Amino acid sequence: xxxxxRRWALLAVSVFCCIGAGPAPGRxxxxxxxxxxxxxxxxxxxxxxxxxxxxxxxxxxxPGYILVCIKPSARSPCxxxxxxxxxxxxxEIAEIVYPRGRLAAPLLHLQMxxxxxxxxxxxxxxxxLAYRPADHxxxxxxxxxxxxxxxxxxxxxxxGPLRGDMIVADATSNAPFAYWVTVDRLTPNxxxxxxxxxxxxxxxxxxxxxxxIDSEMPxxxxxxxxxxxxQPLPLPKSGCAxxxxxxxxxxxx
Length: 253
Prior knowledge:
single chain, 15 strands, globular
């Protein structure tokens, strides 16, 4: 696996050094036009390119590493990688989001996952990028690296009182095994700032079929002052029309 990583890293370096403005060769798995959303010149784009197949930590074949080429114009060189390619075998999200509505500046939202390792573990990475017109570049303003075998999640909130927030549920390292839940909020100058961090009521492997962020949503909203007991329960993003509270944790009826 180390040899495969070195070979792909050397390929990436040689390509970026030699062709300057263009992305690395490989299979294009995603492409976004950035010109109109970010008011940039024609040719501004995000292109995700997947390299040749590699071997994962347990010796099985895995998808190749993903390079992301972000260009503010057709002639610009690719910006520095927003996520380490060695953490990027699967592209899960590549999108333009509007945390403050269509009349305000958008953000680039990327989420990737690594190849699988032992015990089903998998690295996950999420990043938000804002365009800085004065510097003519995209800047990472939020980044989260974590695992994926204990129901961890990083979620962009698309609607409601937390619209535009990034919520992370990350497993704790000691008993009782629960989650650190954090909420990061977009500031007026387009940077993310943590506004909440607490240890969850939800425990690992407690039998709740809901995602941790869904089961913790009453606690998140209450701690942020936008929900209180007696009001209608927040609905999970899918599959649970009639939730109920069990010791402050949301469950499906």
